[in-house]
Automatic annotation (TrEMBL):
Annotated CDD domains: M23_peptidase
Sequence segments annotated as region (Disordered): 14-34, 272-323
Domain M23ase beta-sheet core: 362-455
Protein name from the UniProt record: Peptidoglycan DD-metalloendopeptidase family protein
InterPro entries attached to this UniProt entry: Cell_wall_metabolism_enzyme, Dup_hybrid_motif, M23ase_b-sheet_dom
Composition skew (Basic and acidic residues), residue ranges: 18-34, 274-285, 300-314
Length: 461
């Protein structure tokens, strides 16, 4: 089996074969395209409302976003590699078991064929002509029939196992190819990550003075807060529109199904009525027929070829896109007040409501943490934003339902995409100092109906 796998892996046709993983990946990217375009339009719209004055952090945007993407891709590839390796091990074990079963079945079949050959092909004829007790003859014939059935059953099972071995071999080859793809993508992402890290380090060195000056500007902090508020408002509108569009789509599908069911019911009633009328005519004809005479059959109406009615098609709906609707029921998040776990381990260096120099008050908290520290979702929900944003760096926002949102900023990497559902405590990002922040850590907010509220009353710090 190993030799067959090695030969298959080295063949040109195997190298060019498209795996199930590639097809699923292409489908997922196609589904994300719609919501990605709408989120990008929101980001650009917010940027257009600001003045055109250059911000030093903007020059870091592309590099910091690329580093985040590379880190997320590496994490996803590692998880996928583990799952594929486990699947490959299971398939190999299954293949070994199938080969052992086939060997045993071949031995059994060989033994049956040998016994059948030694006994001769006229066993039944000899038995019938032997003149023995008919009961014994019948019993022996039954036994022969059972042996023949066992042979047929064994042959069928052997064919099925051989087909399963072939299918197992295809799955093993597909898993091997997927591992090759993953390894290649990992190498590409590692190279990209190192390049982007070098680019960011050079930019930070060149921009250090400008970044330091701009951090002290009160109006810049005010614009950051306005930008966040605008993003939250527009995301709320987008989610509401998406939910309404999905409601209309489901209503159209339900209406189409109901119409089809009603038409089918009407056709069934018409068929039943026609059958009842025919039966009644036949009954009356039998009653009116004279004894001893053959009833004259009622002339049948000329048959007309019935044109098949086309099945009603459901209303055309656009290809499904990634949903941004809340993943948790309304009220679920509110019940967790005071019991949420911290999003990251570290010391709180800025609290909600404290003044930021001459600028506005903090709308959230800043938790100082080493770069790369795991950032976890504080509650179940769905990611509605995962992108770089001026003033907040790599920013991820989770909708928990009931108009409650949690916000995680300044991350070095975002490990989830818009539309992803997350569990409480699931790792969604890595802490960092993106967006022009001086310290490494996490900026964290909780918002209700778009307004920031104090996380200290919700999270057990």
């Amino acid at each position: 089996m190993c030799a067959l796998l090695a030969l298959a892996l080295s063949s040109p046709s195997y190298a060019q074969r498209q795996t199930e993983r590639s097809r699923q990946k292409a489908t997922a990217e196609k589904q994300r395209a719609g919501v990605k375009q709408r989120l990008e339009a929101i980001r650009k719209d917010i940027a257009r409302t600001e003045d055109a004055r250059e911000d030093a952090a903007d020059e870091l945007a592309e590099s910091e976003a690329a580093i985040s993407d590379a880190n997320r891709a590496l994490r996803e590839l590692a998880e996928e590699q583990d799952a594929t390796s486990t699947r490959l091990h299971d398939l190999s074990t299954q293949g070994v078991r199938l080969q052992e079963t086939i060997v045993n079945q071949k031995k059994q079949l060989s033994q049956l064929l040998r016994e059948h050959y030694v006994a001769g092909n006229e066993d039944r004829i000899k038995l019938l002509l032997s003149g023995d007790n008919p009961n014994r003859i019948n019993r022996d014939l039954q036994m022969m029939a059972y042996v023949s059935q066992a042979q047929a059953k064994l042959l069928g099972s052997l064919r099925a196992n051989l087909a399963e071995v072939e299918a197992n071999r295809d799955k093993v080859e597909n898993a091997q190819l997927e591992l090759q793809e993953i390894a290649q993508e990992q190498q590409q992402q590692k190279t990209k990550l190192e390049q982007e890290k070098g680019k960011r380090a050079a930019l930070l060195q060149n921009l250090s003075t400008r970044l330091s000056d701009q951090r002290k500007q009160a109006d810049r902090l005010q614009r950051d807060e306005e930008r966040m508020t605008a993003l939250v408002d527009r995301l709320t509108i987008l989610i509401r529109e998406q939910a309404e569009a999905e409601r209309r789509r489901q209503a159209a599908l339900a209406a189409a199904k109901a119409k089809a069911a009603a038409e089918e019911k009407a056709r069934a009633l018409a068929r039943a009525k026609a059958a009842a009328e025919k039966a009644e005519r036949e009954r009356i004809a039998r009653q009116n027929a004279k004894p001893g005479t053959k009833p004259v059959p009622e002339p049948e109406p000329p048959k007309v070829a019935e044109q098949p009615k086309p099945e009603p098609k459901p209303a055309e709906a656009p290809a499904p896109e990634v949903s941004l609707a809340p993943a948790a029921p309304s009220g679920a998040f509110a019940s967790l007040k005071g019991r949420l776990a911290p999003p990251v381990s570290g010391a709180i260096v800025a609290r909600f409501g404290a003044r930021r120099g001459d600028g506005p008050a903090w709308k959230g908290i800043f938790i100082k943490a080493p770069e790369g520290s795991e950032v976890r979702a504080v509650a179940p929900g769905r990611v509605v934003h995962a992108d770089w944003m001026r003033g907040f760096g790599n920013l991820i926002i989770v909708d928990h339902g009931g108009t409650y949102w949690s916000t995680y900023g300044n991350n070095s990497a975002l490990l989830k995409r818009p539309g992803d559902m997350v569990r409480a405590g699931e790792v969604i990002a890595s802490a960092g100092n993106t967006g022009g922040n001086e310290q490494s850590g996490l900026y964290f907010e909780i918002r209700y109906r778009g307004q920031a509220i104090d996380p200290a009353s919700w999270v057990k710090f």
